[in-house]
Please model this.
Amino acid sequence: MSEHLNTALELARTGLPVLPLRRGKVPFGNCPTCIQNACGGRPNMKNAGPCQCPDVCHAWAAATTDPDVINSSTWERAWHRAVGIGYHPGGAGLTVVDLDTPAAVTWARQTLPPTRTVATTRGEHWIYQGAVRSVNGVRAGVDIKSTMAYARWRGHGTGTLTALPDAVRALAVKPVPVRRAAVVTGPALAGGGECCHRTPAYLERGLVMAEQGITEARSAVHATVYRTFLAVLSTHGRCGCLTDAHTARLFTAAQAKGETARHCADAWANARTALGM
Model:
């Protein structure tokens, strides 16, 4: 068993979704069947999810905690070629503040509350408990890696995990142009108000992709359901877009994969808690 594979299995046992990384610290490319999204997995879309392919496909969406997948013969080639391990922070309810310069590290020490810290080649990873949308370049030398993104595993680090601070949540909010036409309104999950920057088509497309991601999960269904709920809530949960009917669609897709109504409710509640809702 390779060193990377052994470490990946240990991390998966702690609930951290993992995937192998090739040279360049990037995920392996899609297999021939899935290349150029021919399988419908749509790895370049924000709510992407793995298709039925058992190979290491679709970048961050390949991350899993299932030891049978991680140790499978289809992943064996990748582990032999891997130069590192990636993980999906949002899938474990975490956020990585990637500080890529000494100046960025200084800013974090002056601005953010202490938390678990991991040294990197050029700076540090500050890891918080809680998930948000992933955004690159929120400040000079600062990226946020959480939902629908991967980070490189560089060790357990030092310090104790603390709750995701509002300062990081604020950085993850990307201003968008206001669109006044065809807005979606409904009972708000948090904060109230109406969603003045998303059209009904945007919401519908996101829900369809979320349902597809759950339906096409080939393993780790529990984790996939949670990650999908987290992604939907991080995009639409604060502005009042989501109604009970929308939630019911996601629960129905999850229950069709064998999840219980209780687990769906728990996963939804846990995702809201992770996002501070």
Observations:
- The two ends are 42 Å apart (CA to CA).
